[in-house]
Write a structure and sequence with these properties.
alpha/beta, eight-stranded parallel beta barrel, two-stranded antiparallel ribbon, 9 helices, globular, binds (5S)-5-amino-3-OXO-hexanoic acid, binds zinc ion
Length: 293
């Protein structure tokens, strides 16, 4: 287990920082982009593992995983998911969080079955949302079934909130079904999706104020909202999610070269704010994720 928040082994005599730290999640692939359009997107298992190692080195503590098939198309194939969880655990200390959102075309049964790959954690989106020209479906009965399965199977959920209504649905879920496996509520604000809440500082502050007491949160802004949301999240004391699932432009006119540079930028900002990147074992302790290495 790495002792330094950057993921690098600590130099002899140097302890991990005692003050507040920032958890960085990397979402390297997603389900929406085509490899042909974005050659740097990690789509094979080898590419994913290489990216994961680089991102841990740069300061990530969690990896949010979507996988692709042999044709680089999004898939929820259970065998591939199991192989992916195993490979990421072998190669890194990162918390392995599988997406249960998948692609907008994935049926509910396949999305529920993701948990059978026994990841450390999973995403759990708290409501349906317009998603560009598509609809990302998360009706209440599906949310409840997925949540109860996480409790039964010992998978730590991260509540994905694309809209203010999702925050209300999260309260309802916790009221109806109790605390998550791991005993801690952690939310991720996914902002700036066309159809969801806007990616700006005012909306972030409003959403954070409405979260359940005692919860922790991270935030990500898709596309050109990536920087404003990251800056607002750092200012508001939150955690960060970055990665090519959410943005493939590093700066005006300059494509992202790889996920690690997005993690490096986030870690630099966190360090500037005097809340440096958290090591995976610190994130496990915060979220209640057992170490399955
Ligand atoms: N690909 C989106 C439709 C999640 O991972 O849980 C859903 C998504 C959320 O990415
Ligand atoms: Zn995702």
């Amino acid at each position: 287990m790495s002792a330094d928040p950057s993921g690098r082994p600590a130099a002899p005599g140097l302890a991990a920082p005692a003050g507040p730290v920032t958890m960085i999640t990397v979402a390297p692939t997603g389900a929406e982009l085509a490899k042909a359009d974005v050659p740097a997107l990690p789509v094979t298992l080898d590419e994913l593992v290489t990216t994961a190692k680089e991102c841990q080195q740069a300061g990530a503590a969690i990896i949010h995983v979507h996988i692709r098939d042999a044709n680089a198309q999004p898939t929820l194939d259970l065998g591939r998911l199991k192989e992916t969880v195993h490979a990421l655990r072998e190669a890194t200390d990162l918390i392995v969080q599988l997406s249960t959102g998948g692609a907008v075309t994935d049926p509910f049964e396949r999305r529920l079955a993701v948990l059978d790959a026994a990841p450390d954690g999973c995403s759990l989106t708290c409501g349906t949302v317009n998603f560009g020209d598509d609809v990302f479906m998360n009706p209440w009965p599906f949310m409840c079934e997925l949540y109860v399965r996480t409790q039964e199977l010992g998978v730590v959920p991260e509540f994905e909130l694309f809209d203010m209504g999702h925050v209300a649905a999260l309260h309802r879920l916790l009221d109806n079904h109790g605390t998550p496996f791991g005993g801690h509520v952690h939310c991720d604000l996914v902002m700036g999706v066309p159809g969801g809440m806007p990616g700006d500082a005012a909306t972030l502050v409003q959403a954070v104020a409405a979260l359940p007491d005692g919860s922790t949160w991270s935030a990500t802004g898709v596309g050109r909202t990536a920087l404003p949301v990251m800056l607002a999240a750092v200012a508001a004391g939150g955690n960060l999610r970055v990665g090519m699932e959410d943005t493939v432009t590093f700066s005006r006119g300059r494509p992202v070269r790889g996920n690690a540079e997005l993690v490096e930028r986030a870690a630099s900002l966190a360090a500037l704010a005097q809340r440096p990147a958290m090591a995976p074992d610190q994130a496990r302790a915060m979220l209640g994720v057992p170490d399955r290495h």
